[in-house]
Amino acid sequence: MAESIVQTRNLYKEYIRDDMRIPVLYDINLDVPKGEFLALMGPSGSGKTTLLNLIAGIDRPTRGDLSVAGESVAALTEGQLAHWRATHIGFIFQFYNLIPVLTAFDNVELPLLLTKLSGYERRKHVEAALAIVGLADRMNHYPRQLSGGQEQRVAIARAIVTDPSILLADEPTGDLDRQSAESIMTLMSRLNSEFNMTIIMVTHDPRAADAAKVVRHLDKGELT
């Protein structure tokens, strides 16, 4: 069995608002092997995005154990977390989060500006990432000059340009038409099968979930 790149044990998350405790995740036990493509499904408010944010180190668990890429994420300081995320996590958002005044090339290069790579090395990494997503001929285009599907491909290139340990996607097809969504899922399947990239994807769309190797469901904060 492949080594687990994500492992949670008795993981809980609750938020405190005034004097109220709002439970979101209950006793989550999850193992994700390296090279897995996992889809997390469930109704709105079931805790899917919260779990994704915990795995990304964007949020911290209330209690329980969480290990990602060999690190106990909850034990890291904010400074350590920032470095760890830059090294290990690629994140794809529903609404792309591209910077409109930057070209596709410059948007993809952004994560590399935090590394010690030279300008020449950064360019090679960006060109390779854009080639993988099929946009080598669009690197000098601005987001407004691209279709929604192309913008999401740029966002995927940005997420993979640092060669992260794990790729997290939050509703990556949620803002796309059906044809563009199918194209994006084909690309993500290819990243998993050809490059052995570990992917955890939150989605409401059963067609998107069909691209994953494993589907798990969250319901009212519990993993079923």
Describe the structure.
It is built from seven helices and ten strands. The chain is of the alpha/beta class and 224 residues long. The mean pLDDT is 93. The longest helix has 18 residues, at 178-195. It is globular and about 50 Å long.
Question: In brief, what are we looking at here?
Answer:
With 224 residues, the chain is α/β, with parallel strands linked by helices. The chain has seven helices and ten strands.
Give the topology, please.
Blueprint: E1 4-17, E2 20-33, E3 37-41, H1 48-55, E4 63-68, E5 71-72, H2 78-88, E6 89-92, H3 104-109, H4 119-132, H5 148-160, E7 166-170, H6 178-195, E8 198-202, H7 206-209, E9 214-219, E10 222-223
Parallel strand pairs: 3-8, 3-9, 6-7, 7-8
Antiparallel strand pairs: 1-2, 1-4, 4-5, 9-10
Properties at a glance:
single chain; 224 residues; alpha/beta; 6-stranded mixed sheet; 4-stranded antiparallel sheet; 7 helices; 10 strands; globular
Our estimate of the beta-strand percent is: 25-35%
Shape: globular
N→C terminal distance: 22 Å
The radius of gyration computed from the alpha-carbon positions, rounded to a whole number of angstroms, is 17 Å
